[in-house]
Amino acid sequence: MKNKLYSIQEAIVHMKKENKNKNYASIDIDLVLNIEYKTNNIPIRIQVNLPYGNGKKYKILSMVEKEKRNEIKKNNNIKIGFKKYIEKIQKGWTKFDILIATPKTMQSIVKLVKILGPKGLMPNTMLGTVNNNPQKIINEINRGKIFLKSDRYGIMHTSIGRINFTNTQILENLKSLLYILNMTKTQHLKGNLIKKIYISSTMGRSYRIKP
Prior knowledge:
- By secondary structure, the protein is α/β, with parallel strands linked by helices.
- The protein has 7 helices and 9 strands.
- It has a 4-stranded antiparallel beta sheet, covered by helices on one side.
- Strand 3, helix 2 and strand 4 form a beta-alpha-beta unit.
């Protein structure tokens, strides 16, 4: 039934049946927000600590000054530097998921706003991605912190786990996301912020679930 509303538990059962042999399929959420995006297209930005993470390893670019670089624990998912990445980004390179800056380097990074802004990659003080303690925010990301922004249609997209997560893990991640959204206030809000919620697995059907 096209307009049927499912409980999150029902949707999880259906998705797991669809993905019996696909343990690493992503579980994705589309949140239709109750905002007047046509007349007041101001994006909603939030940060959420998913208690179980979403199973994704994010590629992090840390653009910090030299004296800060030794504070960062290096691994395969982190690139560290500054001037050379300014030049690469100016040429169109954006092969990273999250950009972390310090207040000092941000003075130069703002010049890249036309490249980074449309891709949602600009660091943001309110989200903590402009930070004098870059390792702190990297640790939070590794523990499950995600950063979300509504698109130009007032829809927020994200992953809340993998199909091999337990039902409880998926449910707790979703609860954390919805809690933060329900606590978010916006000037042009009419009624509840969340209008509709859809959940799906990679290449699977979409289920509209009860808010």
